[in-house]
Amino acid sequence: MKNKPETIKPKRKTELKPKKLLLSKKEKQAVSPHAHMFREAFLPDRRVRKPLLVREKPKRSGGVLSGAILLWVAFLSVTTYTLFFSDFHKIQIIELSGTKDISAEDIQSFVRDRLAEKTFRFFSQDNFFLAPTDSIRNDMLRAFPKLATASISRQFPDTIHIQVTERDRILLWCSGDPCSLVGDDGVAEDGSSSMTPSNEPFLLRIIDDGSSPVTIGEPLLDPKSASAIIRLAQALPDRAGIAVTSPMHSPSRVSDEVRITTKDGWDILANLTLDPDKTIASLLLVLDKEIPQDRRSVLRYIDLRTENKAFFAYSDWTPPPDPTATNPTATPATPTPIQSGTPTNTNAKKVDNVKK
Q1: Which domain holds residue 242?
Q2: Where is the domain boundary, 166, 195, 211?
Q3: CB proximity list for 335: less than 8 A, separation 6 or greater
Q4: Helix, strand, coil tally for the chain in percent (to 5)
Q5: Global model pTM greater than 0.85
Q6: pLDDT tens digits, one per residue of 164-191
Q7: Which CATH number belongs to the domain containing residue 145 in this structure?
Q8: Which of 25-29, 172-176, 263-267 has the lowest mean pLDDT?
Q9: In terms of DSSP bridges, do strands 159-166 and 147-155 run parallel, antiparallel, or are they unpaired?
């Protein structure tokens, strides 16, 4: 028997079936997030949700708030007592500098009396923080008219420093009664506190012959004129050796003229607009060159109101005889006009170019 040829059957191509992969839940959600959402939307959720616990905030107790308020009240009370009532800030030391003729004890006593006063009936003014230094300074200048300036400073915790300067003279303008104090700025001030025995050696009175009314707080003299009066009053005894008397006289406060009477009885007429040093130099030159020593006892006045010129007259001058006494038809002599502030004697001798 013949062997039959073998038929070779082609092999079937085996289809590779995809293997099922075992994926975790997270991997499934990553592969198919939509399916996971679909399942959660339609399938019941088997997870048991625990209820949320809401914690309530603890309520503040009223005791804590009351304690805080009490602490603040105690703090403020202690601070107020320490600052305004404790002796720690009480002014104990008053240092004073700059006095020359005024007693330092008098100023310190005055300041202590002012510090002993009360503010609002409860607070003492001797407290470092409550001391009214500006008010004390102004009152001190009024009480001591010889003081020109004053300043008060504090040094913690219980010291104040007072720095003062004094005037050389206290200038009073007397146009009626009472006299007014002339300040350094020429303004009229109350002069009642100047009339004390301690101030008497330093008073320099000017009498206004025109008796013009004076208003306190308004300008009275030009500051340069006031300074010239004081400089003349100082230079006459110091430089010229001429003692003067008080008061001086002025025709009016706008005339810028003053008549100074010496203790020998003769007058000096001065122009306050001129330099006082030049006025004194002219006076010394006239006394040295024109007026002999034996004639000074009968000297009536020296007029220095014109720059570089001087006029002087004697008191023993006799007027010339009247021509009408012997000849009734003769023309009477014409009297010489008298300038304001000039003595009635008219036998003045003129000296020109009064210069050294």
Answers
A1: 222-352
A2: 166
A3: 346
A4: 30, 20, 45
A5: no
A6: 999 989 999 998 778 999 998 999 999 8
A7: 3.10.20.310
A8: 25-29
A9: antiparallel
